[in-house]
Every structure is written in structure tokens, then in C-alpha cells.
Amino acid sequence: MNAKGVYYRDLNKTIRDLIFKDGVDEIELLNVNGQRYIGDGISRKVKIIIHGVPGNDLGVFMDGPTIIVNSNAQDGVGNTMNDGKIVIHGMAGDVIGYGMRCGKIFIKDDVGYRVGIHMKSHKDKIPFLIVGGKAGDFFGEYMAGGVLILLGLEENDKPIVGDYVGTGMHGGAIYVRGEVDKRQLGKEVGIKELNAEDYGLIEPVLKEYCEDLRLDMNQVMSKKFIKLIPVSHRPYGRLYAY
């Protein structure tokens, strides 16, 4: 389907009609240029392949689809996503995975600010968000569950992550390939070394990430990881009266 010049509401109506009325299992969109809300709220296991740059809130509330973006993406990818997978063969903007509850988001290159904010998990529903490049400030802010992995595969003088990492974090785990200066961390976060259980958790999803984005797993695992976890599950408990 050629999305060139198509208004975002019309594009999304056509996508939903193809999925829910016509029963289509795969949709390929050409010439996407900033159209918002693609894949939002879809609860079927369909594949949407995007050529071009989708607009904000890609995959919001989605519950099952696979979305592949063969370029960059903007802000709010996977906002409150419930299940499925989003693969981005480029960069993504701010607030990726906001309130994400399950599923996977794989990003090949850099991301902006407040990525992974308010991620959460419940029992066996664990969201995974992997960034192949570097991240801005407030990475993992107020994180309540799930797994964030930051790889920093492009070696340069830029820090792998900005400041205030994990500020307000009270659940989940952040895995960073490389080192993070303690001054960059929120006061709610501690640094741990990985154990066998950690590697058992992240290696299968990293293998899937490398397969989807055609990356070298050996390169990914060639550098030491650190684990960032909350030092308290109630970091602001003393601020409230009972």
C-alpha cells in the first residue's frame, strides 16, 4: 500500500479494515512519512512492514502484531504496549516503551530521552526493550518492571547513556554493555555484576535481536555487561503520611 500523502486517519482506517474486515495477515506500507498511530490497539497477530518514517505513538496499546520499520521512528513507540514486537532498523525518539507491559521493542541505533519510563511486568508478562546504540537522559525512569538492555555498539567519545539513569526506579532491571559512571545514576539505583541467571535471561532475547537486525551476536557479547537495579521498591515511601 502506498501511504504517500495519505492523511493519518485515513491510513489507519484502511489498515484496520484490511486486518479486521478482510482478514489480511501482512501489510506492507510504502512512502510512510510521519503518519501517527500506525498499528495502535490492534489485537491480532499480523505483520506490518513500514518503509519510511512513521509518526508518533507507533504501536500504542497493541496486543500481538509484529511491526517492522525499515528506517527511523519518532516519539512514543510502543506506548502502553501489551504484547507483540516492534523492530526498528534505525533510530527512535523520546519516551519509547512508556508504560510497556509485555512484548519486545528492538531498536538498532540510538534513542532519545526517557526511554523505558514506567515499564512494568506482571508474573510471566515481561517486556523487553533493547537499544543497540546510545540513550539520552532519564533512561529507565520510574521503571517498575521489565528489562531494558543498552548496547552502545557504535564506539565513539559520546557516553553510552545520559544522566539520571533509573531515577525513581523501583522494579525491573537495566543491563548496560560497558560502564556507567555512578554520577549518572539516580539515587534509587545500584550497580551489580551479572550472574548465570542474568545471562540466561538476556542471551536468548539478544540472540533474537541480532537475528532480526542482522547483527553479530559475538560482537554484542564481546564486552562486559553491568546490571542496574533499584535499591528500594518504595523509593519515595517516606515522603507520604499514613
TrEMBL record:
InterPro entries in the cross-refs: Archaeal_gltB, Glu_synth_asu_C, Glu_synth_asu_C_sf, Glu_synth_lsu_3
GO MF annotation list: oxidoreductase activity
Organism superkingdom: Bacteria
Pfam families: GXGXG
Domain Glutamate synthase alpha subunit C-terminal residue range list: 28-187
Protein name: Glutamate synthase alpha subunit C-terminal domain-containing protein
Species of the source: Candidatus Schekmanbacteria bacterium RIFCSPLOWO2_12_FULL_38_15
